[in-house]
UniProtKB/TrEMBL annotation:
Lineage per the UniProt record: Bacteria, Bacillati, Bacillota, Bacilli, Bacillales
Presence of keyword Transmembrane: no
Entry cofactors: pyridoxal 5'-phosphate
SUPFAM superfamilies: PLP-dependent transferases
Protein name: Trans-sulfuration enzyme family protein
UniProt similarity note: Belongs to the trans-sulfuration enzymes family.
Keyword line: Pyridoxal phosphate
Pfam families for this protein: Cys_Met_Meta_PP
Keyword Protein transport in record: no
Amino acid sequence: MIKRQDKDIKDAGMQTMLAHYGDETFHGAVVPPVFINTLFAFDSYEAFQRSQWQEEAFYYSRIANPTQQIAEKKLAALEKGEAAKLFASGMAAISSTLLHCLSQGDHVICSYPIYNGTYQMLQSYLPKFGITADFVDFRQLEQVRAAIKPNTKMLYCEGFSTFFMDVFDIPAVVEIAKTHNLLTVMDNTCATPATMRPIEWGIDIVIHSASKYLCGHSDVTAGVVISSQERMEGIANSEVVLLGATLAPLEAWLLTRGLKTFGLRMKQHAESARRIAEMLCAHPQVSRVNLPTLKQHEQYALASRQFSDNTGLFSFELHGGPKAVARMMNNLRIFRIGVSWGGFESLIYSPGLGINPEQQTRTKHEARLERTIRISVGLEDVEDLMEDLQFALEHC
Ligand SMILES: *Cc1c(COP(=O)(O)O)cnc(C)c1O
C-alpha cells in the first residue's frame, strides 16, 4: 500500500514529486527529521547479522544515512535515473565518478570550455595515474570523432559551455559514443533537470553541483551523481566508502528543503532572465548576449530542441571592453560580484577577472573573456533588477 503510493508520487509532476516523494514521516511530521547521528546501533548480535541481508540497513553515516537517502531519492527521480548518491561538493561528485569509471591508461574526450575544476582534474591531476584527456569543442562533431583513440573510454561534457553558454548536438554525440562503446558523462549543473534531463537523451551518468540551483539558497555545498542502480552501487561501495567525501546529514536536509521549491524557483529565474536578456539584446552598449535559448542567438534552433527553457544564468559582452565591464560592475547596487551562481540572489562576474591585469598582450579568447559579464539572475523583483542594470549600463 505504502509502496504503491510512493510510486504514484514518483511519477507525478515535478513539484508534487519533490514535495512528497521519498520523505519518511515520523509522528505525522510534514518535515522529515535530521538524522544527525554518525552510527546506527543494534539490539543483538542476530539483529546486526540479519540486517546485512535486508534491502535497507544503516550502519554508519559516511556510507549511508536516512536524511541523505531522502534527498537521493528525490534527485534520482528528478533526473529520471535509477539511483543517486550525494557527495560533499560538486567536485567530490566529479572526482569520485572519474576515479570510479577510469583506470590507468584510459583516455577521456572532454568538451571545452568546461568548468575549471573539471579541467584541472583531467588536465593536471589524473595524468598522475596514467589517465589522459583531450579537450574538444563539441560543436565540431568531426573533431570529437577525430579525437577517439583505441584507449578512449569516456566522453565528458556539460550541456552549456562555461561562460559562453554554447550548446552542442547531444543526440549526435551520444550516437558517436554508442558507436565506439564509450561511456557518456554530463555535468548538468547549468541546465538543471528543470530544462533538460540527460538520461532521457541517452547519457549514462549525470553529475551536479547541488550548491547551485538544486539547493538554490547559497547555504549548502553539495554534489550528486545519478545513474543506473548497478553503477551507483559500484560507486557507493568503492568511492563513497574509500574516499569518504560524504555529505553531512544537516546539509542533506537543507538540500531537501531547497528542492521543495526547485520548480517554482526555476520558473521565476527563467522568466526574469529572459526579460533581462531581451533588454540587454536591445541595449547599444551590449555587443552580444550569450543565451542560445533566445531567438536572436545563432544556436537557437538546436538549443530549443534540447532545452525546454533557459535558467537564470547567461552572459553578455560589452562594446567598451574590460574598462566598461569594470565600470558597469562597480555601478550595480542589487547585483553583487561573486564567482558562484544559482542562488536566490543576483550575481555578476567577469571571466576576465581570471586574467592577470599586468599581462601585456591578450589572445582573441582572452580579449573576449575580458569583455564578457556572466549574470546569475536571482529571485528579486525583475523590475528592480532591470533598473539596476540599466543604470549601470548608462554609466559605463
Ligand atoms: C560549481 C560547479 C561545479 C563544482 O561544484 P562545487 O559544489 O563547487 O564543488 C562543477 N561543475 C559546474 C558546472 C559548476 O558550476
